[in-house]
Amino acid sequence: MSMIQTGKVDLSSTSPVETVGGNTSTFTRVTFPTPFPAGSQVVVLPLTQTFNGPQTPGIRIHDVNPQGFLIRLNEVFVNNAVKSDGTHTTETIGWLATTV
Questions:
Q1: Are 18 and 74 contacting, i.e. CB atoms less than 8 angstroms apart?
Q2: CA angle, 61 then 19 then 70, to 5°
Q3: Does position 89 have pLDDT exceeding 80, yes or no?
Q4: What count of Cα atoms within 13 Å lies in the side-chain half-sphere of residue 89?
Q5: Full-model pTM
Q6: What gap in Å lies between CA 56 and CA 50, rounded to an integer?
Q7: Which of the chain's termini has less CB crowding within 10 Å, N or C?
């Protein structure tokens, strides 16, 4: 039997783009309203709900577990010549979490 939860979080970024794998010091912890059962395999699907900044906000998710996950905005790189500075105004991110 699968279980689904939804929610939203307002995020902004005042830090440079995170390019080092595993460095989650600039991420925000989201805790599920009700933890999923222990041992559950949880998938989180995030989606930007607003369009408040002119640059494209990338969304990074990390450490998904039955209690919650880490999330941050990480502006999208255009190419090697034009890079984002990483800062971004507040956007609302909706999320759906489900077991698989």
A1: yes
A2: 20
A3: yes
A4: 6
A5: 0.87
A6: 11
A7: N
DSSP string, 27-95: -EEEE-SSPPPTT--EEEEEEE----SSSPPPEEEEEEETTEEEEEE-PPP--SSS---S-EEEEEEEE
**13-56 pLDDT per residue, tens:** 887 777 777 889 889 999 999 999 999 999 999 999 999 988 88
- What's the CA gap between 27 and 18, in Å, rounded? 10
> What is the distance between the alpha carbons of residues 18 and 58, in angstroms, rounded to a whole number?
11
- The larger pLDDT score, comparing residue 25 to residue 95, is at 95
